[in-house]
Amino acid sequence: MYWDVIEVRSIAPRELAVQFEDGLSGVLHIDLSFCTGVFDPLRNDQLVGSAQVENGVVVWPNGLDLAPDTMYREIKRSPNRRYNLFR
């Protein structure tokens, strides 16, 4: 799908640059307030920076993942191509 992630890389603590299949790119910021429940392990900055792409999805070695369609939608509608994950 056009919202499949094809590249992810750490660009700063708690920030990932993502690029989608259709060429859209942006920055994902994972705020500490987001890191509760199942996402609690993402309090670790090193873990955040270890994100990879698997089958079009941003994933981490511990099995966590983020929905690419939501990331795509939020980055596309943001004037600065940024998606801030907060609780």
Description of the molecule:
This protein is of the alpha+beta class and 87 residues long. The protein is 17% helix and 37% strand. The longest helix has 10 residues, at 68-77. A four-stranded mixed sheet has the order 1-2-3-7, covered by helices on one side. The chain has a three-stranded antiparallel sheet with strand order 4-5-6. It has two helices and seven strands; from the N terminus they run E-E-E-H-E-E-E-H-E. The model has no long low-confidence stretch (mean pLDDT 96).
Largest sheet: 4 strands, mixed
Coarse structural class: alpha+beta
Distance separating the two termini: 28 Å
Going across the biggest sheet, name each strand in turn.
Answer: 1-2-3-7
Number of strands: 7
Estimated radius of gyration = 12 Å
Mean pLDDT reading: 96
Taken from the alpha-carbon principal axes, the silhouette is globular
Can you count the helices? 2
Low-confidence residue ranges: none
Order of helices and strands: EEEHEEEHE
Write the layout of secondary structure elements.
Layout: E1 5-12, E2 15-20, E3 25-30, H1 45-49, E4 52-54, E5 57-59, E6 65-66, H2 68-77, E7 82-85
